[in-house]
Amino acid sequence: MRLESSRRAPTSCSAQRKAASRIFTRNSFLTNIQTNVISHVDTLIDVMRGHAKSGEELGLSELFFRFTLDSFVAMAFGSELGSMQAGTPVPFATAFYFAQQRSACGLQL
User: Out of 6, 40, 58, 64, which could bridge 71 as a Cys pair, Cβ 3.0 to 4.6 Å?
Assistant: First the structure.
């Protein structure tokens, strides 16, 4: 399968890059993003320490997915998802992962 080029794609990508450049400024990083990530790294370390103490198996891939999702949800929506501490799958995380997998399948050549 070959991807067709579109005249709208560069315009769309340009608009997305321009919007992102306004969000990810130095000031935004130092005040919001850095604080958010540090907070979630602390939670990540706590979860890892808990597993180390208990000797319970820990899936790093799943934990890092949850770390990324928790951090992004907090930055984008100002809400704490808490998926790293959850012992069971969080419905939003499950739905997001499903949508991500379906999108990836649609993009395969």
Answer: 40
